[in-house]
Amino acid sequence: MGKLFAVVLTIITLVSAGLIAAHVWWLPVDISTIGPRIDRQMDETMVATGVLFLSSQLILACFVWKFGDKRDGGKIKYFPGGSGPLIGFAIALVGIEILVLSFGGSKVWAAVYMTPPEPDALHVDVAAEQFAFYFRYAGPDGRFGVIHPERVRDGNGNYFGLDPANDVAARDDVIVGTLTVPVDRPILLTMHSKDMIHSFYVPELRMQQDILPGLTIPLHFTATQAGKYEIVCTQLCGLGHYSMRSFLEVLPPDQFDQWLKSQSGD
Amino acid sequence: MRLKYVVLPVVVVLAVSVLASLAGPPADTGTIEGKVTYTGTPPKMKPIDMSKEPICAKEHNPPELAQNVVTGPGNALQDVVVYISAGEPPSPAPSQAVRYDQKGCMYIPHVLPMQVDQPLQIYTDDPFSHNIHPVPKLNPEWNKSQLPGSPPIQTKWSEAEFIQVKCNIHPWMHGYFAVLKTSHYAVTDNNGSFSLKDLTPGKYTVTSWQEQYGTKSQEVTLAAGETKSITFTYKATPYLY
Q: In this complex, do A177 and B52 lie within 8 Å of one another by their Cβ atoms?
């Protein structure tokens, strides 16, 4: 029975590691400038944890195979010092690995969160609410209208709480339901939530960011491939959470300019 | 012999009823009709962005415009509820239900008038869920999910008020229930026209309500058989918010 367990354990270990190594279920295509660094970090993490996973499981299988109870009444043997030193060794090994990965990963993390966006970044304001995302562009005047939370009213499309009657800058703000951006240009998002926690997740950008009510949360990226990608909310936010999604449309710069101009004309 | 005493009056009563119905309303009733218009510049309605629900975005191509202020030829205002707000006793609730549809991520009609305690049926024709959420101030508030193919929601409202209706899944969906005490009401068409018929002679307060611009009222005294023409004029502002 012990030997059967060792065989099954070995098979499960090798098959599951093989599936990950072969990238059978892997990340979608990467379309952001930060993506390669995040993917490399992911690879390093998978290799480091994979080596530990494989070695620990295979050693376990070997020990079960070789030292399993032979039911011959023989004396049970222990490592010198009992299990204490082994546990200490395991904690030190895993701890060192976590520290190394964290230090390595912190550089990538800082490149996203601790580095300011490029000065020429296109600023898009994002409002998340049950159960949709809305995106706001400054319009031809290059200035955003001031947000008045008490003026937010979905019924007349005032998702951001603007006051165009009294605020000139708000009059040309462009508000749409799809995030349209030009390719190869830095984008700065400032994100707000109207009601509860939501999350902005675009797997192809390798970006996932929670949006909390009461905070303005910045996020910046540069998309490198034109195309249409899904934006999904990844925080369970209520009954319609499953339907809370939008799209990221990355356009060539000239098409983007044309698109923004057509929206401003309305 | 006895049978003819029973049959004859029944036939007479039926014949009189049929003739009465063919003749239309009694000659001593009157009509208030007219038009709702605006002055100034109304806001330009923007196309509704339904990209979140691709089936609806595909169905409405080019996109539907928002319906907060719908105008017609000659400065007409559409979707304005015009009704008798005073001058008559409350009308009993009819048993016939009014119907409200959710179709292609839109509420149809945009403004649905009904009487207090009149049965209301809310249907969905869409192949995905809606969550209908009326926001009353006097009646109890509720919101209910309707899965594709669900039977209609059966309900009614016991207090008169204008109730905004929204969908908790599709934020652009919005409409209104106009719950009225009177049976004399109309919603203006694209020419801004309305007609309140079968009014007995008397002094009435006629009120109009538009979702963006609110209510206006005027007194009308109606004589027997008279048709009076009135106009409601709203001052439009170019900004919707």
A: yes
Give me the residue label for tokens 């292609």.
B104
**ipTM of the complex, rounded to two decimals:** 0.70
Same domain, B147 and B84: no
Whether B241 and A245 lie within 8 Å, measured CB to CB: no
Distance CA B195, CA B186 (A): 7
Q: Which value, in Å, is the radius of gyration of the alpha carbons in chain B?
A: 21
Answer whether B193 touches A (CB < 8 Å).
Answer: no
Residue A240 in contact with partner chain B when CB distance is under 8 A: yes
> How many other CB atoms are found less than 10 A from the CB of residue A1?
8
The enclosing domain of B82 has a CATH number of 2.60.40.1120
- Rounded to two decimals, the pTM is 0.80
Closest CB from A154, A162, A171 relative to B166: A154
- Is residue B128 within 8 Å of residue B55, measured between CB atoms? yes
- Distances in Å between the Cα of B89 and the Cα atoms of B59, B94, B201 are 45, 15, 13
B41 torsion bin: left (phi>0), alpha (psi -120 to 50), beta (else): beta
Contacts (Cβ under 8 Å, ≥6 apart) of B47: A266, B62, B63, B64, B65, B66
Interchain contact A75–B (C-beta under 8 A):
no
Same-domain check for residues A59 and A136: no
Number of domains in chain B: 2
Q: Are A109 and A233 part of one and the same domain? A: no
The enclosing domain of A209 has a CATH number of 2.60.40.420
Beta strands in chain B (DSSP E): 30-40, 70-72, 76-78, 81-86, 98-103, 106-108, 111-115, 120-124, 130-135, 144-146, 153-155, 161-167, 174-180, 185-187, 193-199, 202-210, 214-222, 227-236
Residues 3-32 of A with CB under 8 A from B: none
Residue-wise pLDDT tens for chain A (266 aa)?
A: 788 999 999 999 999 999 999 988 889 999 999 999 999 999 999 999 999 999 999 999 999 998 887 777 777 778 788 889 989 998 999 999 999 999 988 989 999 999 999 999 999 999 999 899 999 999 999 999 999 989 988 877 889 999 998 999 999 999 998 999 999 999 999 999 999 999 999 999 999 999 999 999 999 999 999 999 999 999 999 888 988 999 999 999 999 999 999 888 65
Contact present, A195 and A149 (Cβ < 8 Å): no
Give the span between the Cα atoms of A136 and A125, in whole angstroms.
5
Q: Which domain holds residue B73?
A: 26-88+186-241
